[in-house]
């Protein structure tokens, strides 16, 4: 029995060694977001030792992390025991770490994907979560280089500038009611895949929706998916005032490049819609603010009003969902130029 006990203690010892030396960040937090575990990766990149980090509130230790957005990401982990994720195309990083990798030294910060997983206690309750941080800087930089090469080969293409991006892909994307004149805490924008618009096309699982019938089908499918899976979803409605009754291709292209491959978009008259799968209101506000900033960089004469409608059980059809997004847009416009509004029933 004693030998078996020694083996178990030895197992714990080398497991702790693995946790401390693995090349991903591991942060364990309780329900009050107090740090309980801080591994070697996090110590190396933050400059904070486990002794300093342990017991500290995450948002006090890292005030640049948008608290509302991150809490909304973690709530389903605590409450539903489901994993959630963030990806660099949606938000470049969770922790603002410098990039020390020699090959990708052109990036000033580390691009990150994260997974947030539930940790079950002996009583089967979820009192702690683990955030896993992956360094994906190489992937982000290679993506940017590839787009620059495409831009050089196709002179008509817009050149990416590590900023957000035009009209539409279809399938799922990222995750209250208050007017938001202030942007989410700043994070550098990043260009997603550039997609050359055509009448209808599929590019690496991203679908550009050009007709109303296809858009209605897409909305209804997403509505059913949200109802069935209990995962969040958001519909974003944008209206751009540019002293013109139509949007030129460069403006639409900018909007499209802001979207991820899993997003769906639709252009109807002077309204732009983006359907974001597995995204809550915080994710949608971050996306909307990123698009607004990118458009404003085209010129001060542009103003962008944005309505956001998170999925709710009261929606009986895709049309209900779209009307909610348009209602939020009208409320945003009543507040003034460059405002965001989240729909509340």
UniProtKB/TrEMBL annotation:
List, alphabetically, the SUPFAM superfamilies matched: Nucleotide cyclase, PYP-like sensor domain (PAS domain)
A single GO BP term for this record reads: regulation of DNA-templated transcription
Q: Which residue numbers delimit the GGDEF domain? A: 231-345
Q: Which Gene3D superfamilies match?
A: 3.30.70.270, PAS domain
Q: What name does the UniProt record give this protein?
A: PAS domain-containing protein
Q: What is the lineage of its organism?
A: Bacteria, Pseudomonadati, Pseudomonadota, Gammaproteobacteria, Oceanospirillales
């Amino acid at each position: 029995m004693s030998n078996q006990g020694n083996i178990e203690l030895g197992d714990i010892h080398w497991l702790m060694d693995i946790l401390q030396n693995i090349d991903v960040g591991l942060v364990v937090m309780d329900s009050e977001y107090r740090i309980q575990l801080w591994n070697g990766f996090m110590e190396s990149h933050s400059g904070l030792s486990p002794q300093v980090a342990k017991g500290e509130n995450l948002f006090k230790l890292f005030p640049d992390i948008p608290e509302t957005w991150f809490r909304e990401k973690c709530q389903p982990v605590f409450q539903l025991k489901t994993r959630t994720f963030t990806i660099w195309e949606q938000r470049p990083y969770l922790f603002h770490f410098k990039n020390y990798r020699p090959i990708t030294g052109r990036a000033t910060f580390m691009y990150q994907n994260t997974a947030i997983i539930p940790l079950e206690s002996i009583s089967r309750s979820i009192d702690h979560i683990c955030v896993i941080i992956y360094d994906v800087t190489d992937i982000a930089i290679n993506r940017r280089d590839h787009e620059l090469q495409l831009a050089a080969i196709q002179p008509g293409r817009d050149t990416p500038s590590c900023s957000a991006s035009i009209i539409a892909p279809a399938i799922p994307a990222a995750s209250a009611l208050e007017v938001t004149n202030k942007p989410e805490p700043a994070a550098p924008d990043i260009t997603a895949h550039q997609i050359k618009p055509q009448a209808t096309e599929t590019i690496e699982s991203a679908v550009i929706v050009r007709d109303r019938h296809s858009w209605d089908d897409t909305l209804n499918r997403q509505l059913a998916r949200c109802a069935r899976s209990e995962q969040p979803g958001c519909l974003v409605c944008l209206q751009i005032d540019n002293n013109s009754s139509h949007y030129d291709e460069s403006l639409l292209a900018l909007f499209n490049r802001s979207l991820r491959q899993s997003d769906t978009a639709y252009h109807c008259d002077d309204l732009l819609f983006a359907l974001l799968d597995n995204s809550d209101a915080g994710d949608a506000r971050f996306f909307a603010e990123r698009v607004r900033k990118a458009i404003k960089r085209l010129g001060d004469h542009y103003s962008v009003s944005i309505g956001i409608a998170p999925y709710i059980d009261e929606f009986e059809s895709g049309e209900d969902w779209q009307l909610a997004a348009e209602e939020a847009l009208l409320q945003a416009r009543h507040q003034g130029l460059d405002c965001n509004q989240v729909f509340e029933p």
